């Protein structure tokens, strides 16, 4: 598989090619590694070498063979290092999988590496003394937002179709807006965090992913939607950031939708309609693999 073929596909399309035998998971992984290394050289979005070998995952899962990266936001993948972007935590190793990582493995997702974050994931700018500054593929002199900034840079650049991230006060939605991506903060408790791991944010932090298409994010059927409200981050309401337009400088402009607790189906239905009415898929930043 050539890189230009790989970067045109979202996770659903890529999984379909693997499941139907049109391409092998090994071929996809080889291409993804090349794409990630190329993107990282331009964007500084990975925390270190790619995982080799790839952590075990279910090859026949619904997203079997689809490559992704995990966020350096704490212990996530068993046996791999993490430091939350802080020099104080260098040398820490995850001794067990995060509860969500077990779901990712079962889905067949192939974790190839770890994405950058600001120190302790406590900033909306992905800059740290540990890793330096992560650059925006749309405009490399600008940042990517945070704290899931490395993930956003890699997805926007076409290096992976989706990437793990987390969101308490905008850490998925802000990078999604800055990089022209789809970023969903799920309702509180929608995705599993496991014992204690979700307590640092007092329950406000939700784990999910950044993608390029609504259908990669979708997992519920359609219903009705609720208006935006400022206390949503504390209240645990689901929120979705979508690319809607571009500035005069060619930078993505995102729009945020919110719904009642547990109504991700509403957000994804409205988001799908918006994406059809104002198509974004196919637009590529200047720094693209």
UniProtKB/TrEMBL annotation:
This is Amidase domain-containing protein. Belongs to the amidase family. Residues 57-219, 224-268 form the Amidase domain. The lineage of its organism: Bacteria, Bacillati, Actinomycetota, Actinomycetes, Streptosporangiales. GO terms for molecular function: catalytic activity. PANTHER family: GLUTAMYL-TRNA(GLN) AMIDOTRANSFERASE SUBUNIT A, MITOCHONDRIAL, TRANSAMIDASE. It comes from the Bacteria.
């Amino acid at each position: 598989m050539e890189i230009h073929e790989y970067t045109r596909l979202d996770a659903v399309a890529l999984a379909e090619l693997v499941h139907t035998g049109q391409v092998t998971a090994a071929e996809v992984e080889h291409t993804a590694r090349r794409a990630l290394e190329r993107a990282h050289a331009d964007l500084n979005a990975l925390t270190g070498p790619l995982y080799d070998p790839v952590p075990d995952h279910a090859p026949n899962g619904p997203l079997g063979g689809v490559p992704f990266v995990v966020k350096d936001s704490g212990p996530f993948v068993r046996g791999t290092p993490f430091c939350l972007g802080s020099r104080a935590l260098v040398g820490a190793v995850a001794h067990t999988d995060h509860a969500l990582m077990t779901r990712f493995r079962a889905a067949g997702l192939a974790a190839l590496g770890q994405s950058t974050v600001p120190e302790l994931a406590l900033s909306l700018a992905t800059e740290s003394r540990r890793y330096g500054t992560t650059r925006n593929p749309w405009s490399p002199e600008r940042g990517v937002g945070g704290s899931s900034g490395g993930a956003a840079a890699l997805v926007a650049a076409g290096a992976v179709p989706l990437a793990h991230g987390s969101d308490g006060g905008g850490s998925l939605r802000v990078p999604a807006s800055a990089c022209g991506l789809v970023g969903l903060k799920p309702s509180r408790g929608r995705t599993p965090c496991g014992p204690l791991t979700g307590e640092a944010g007092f329950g406000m932090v939700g784990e999910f992913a950044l993608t390029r298409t609504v259908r990669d994010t979708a997992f519920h059927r359609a219903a009705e939607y609720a208006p935006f409200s400022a206390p949503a981050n504390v209240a645990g309401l689901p929120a979705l950031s979508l690319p809607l337009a571009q500035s005069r400088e060619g930078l993505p402009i995102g729009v945020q939708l919110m719904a009642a607790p547990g109504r991700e189906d509403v957000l994804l239905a409205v988001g799908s309609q918006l994406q059809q009415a104002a198509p974004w898929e196919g637009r590529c930043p200047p720094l693209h693999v």
